[in-house]
Design goal:
The chain is of the alpha/beta class. Helix content is about 30%, strand content about 20%. The protein has a 7-stranded mixed β-sheet with strand order 1-3-4-2-5-6-7, with helices on both faces. The structure holds guanosine-5'-triphosphate and magnesium ion.
């Protein structure tokens, strides 16, 4: 029987508003980035199987700090504040840049960045700039297309094909998911297992061939 990769234990560590509040850089980290309201926090809750561990926005632009979650004692999942919220005051946008860029450029333990986009929208300049920026920093990138539950199967397929033509060539195939239904989550966990061992209780070999 196929063994599903899963995170066994997840706990909130800290909400950092400045770099001095980051936890010691001792464990590999996977950061979650994307436009405000795209579902970063929801997706992290789904990955950690904890519905309310990460606060989900009732209004866009809610997450203003960098939030660290410890999973299975040997990796952090890191929720970044969303970009592109038009109504955010200039001061907030400036703070976002300082905090997020400082983290992405300076944190030595980042194993990769999950860039989340809405499957119903074509990636725009901001999404593409983020990908180029992370690539220039030599960060490993996974693109995730969230909210697949909002599209019918044929529309989903068409959207993925279309988005693939827009994404830069250094991006591997995007992973369609739904934080709401859990669709695509095992595939995403499988991809993340390349860089952090998510299943300490079972060996890698147990998962080989599962997708
Ligand atoms: N239908 C559907 N709704 C989703 C999905 N993922 C997130 N949402 C909804 O989208 C809204 C935003 O979700 P969040 O997880 O707070 O988004 P975020 O990217 O963390 O937002 P910020 O913290 O503002 O950057 C919430 O109302 C979620 O319930 C999904 O896969 N499907
Ligand atoms: Mg959030």
């Amino acid at each position: 029987m196929a063994t599903f990769p899963r995170i066994n234990k997840a706990e909130f560590v800290v909400s950092a508003f400045k770099a001095s509040q980051f936890p010691p850089a001792t464990l590999p980290e996977i950061a979650f980035a994307g436009r405000s309201n795209v579902g970063k926090s929801s997706l992290m809750n789904r990955l950690m199987e904890r519905r309310r561990l990460v606060k989900v926005s009732s209004r866009p632009g809610f997450t203003q700090s960098i939030n660290f979650f410890l999973v299975d004692q040997y990796a952090y999942l890191v929720d970044l504040p969303g970009y592109g919220f038009a109504k955010a005051p200039k001061k907030v946008i400036h703070r976002w840049h300082r905090l997020v860029e400082g983290y992405l450029e300076g944190r030595p333990t980042i194993a990769g960045v999950v860039c989340i986009m809405d499957i119903r929208r074509e990636p725009d300049r901001m999404d593409l700039d983020l990908l180029e920026y992370l690539n220039a920093l030599n960060r490993r990138i996974w693109v995730v297309l969230n909210k697949t539950d909002k599209l019918s199967q044929p529309k989903r397929k068409r959207a993925i094909l279309r988005i693939r033509t827009i994404l830069p060539s250094f991006i591997e195939s995007p992973i369609p998911v739904s934080a709401k239904t859990g669709q695509g989550i095992p595939e995403l966990l499988n991809r993340l297992r390349d860089v952090i061992e998510i299943t300490p209780s079972t060996s890698r070999a147990d998962h080989e061939g599962y997708c």
